[in-house]
Specification:
It contains nine helices and no strands. It has 113 residues and is an all-alpha fold. The chain starts with a helix and ends with a helix.
């Protein structure tokens, strides 16, 4: 049942379906519908999966895909962090990480000494 899956994933991530729906701009009344057995449309389900940092198939089935199985815990942690960055802040975060990926030459010489 979709409700059980989203509830478990949200609990594991320290949030709730209601919080996720609010953050995505959807009606929190959907939670009651899911408790009764209905499922979200594909657009909503995909948005929820992305927000939670899980694949759509995992959200629906709680089964990890081959890709999910291939990811290390560190990779999963990074994906979860990235998924929680607000869209309007993502470019800023990418720029920050890009500028800190390379050790500037002046500091590289100091580290060798």
């Amino acid at each position: 049942m979709f409700y059980d899956n989203i509830y478990k994933i949200c609990r594991d991530k320290g949030t709730s379906p209601t919080v996720i729906l609010k953050e995505l701009g959807y009606s929190t009344g959907n939670v009651s519908k899911w408790k009764s057995g209905s499922v979200p449309n594909i657009e909503m389900a995909l948005a929820i999966a992305r927000k939670l940092g899980v694949s759509l198939d995992y959200l629906i089935t709680l089964e990890k895909s081959r890709l999910d199985s291939a990811l290390s815990e560190s990779d999963r942690e990074w994906l979860n962090i990235i998924a929680l960055i607000p869209e309007d802040k993502q470019e800023m975060c990418k720029d920050f990480l890009r500028t800190h990926m390379v050790v500037p030459e002046k500091f590289a010489d100091q580290k060798k000494a």
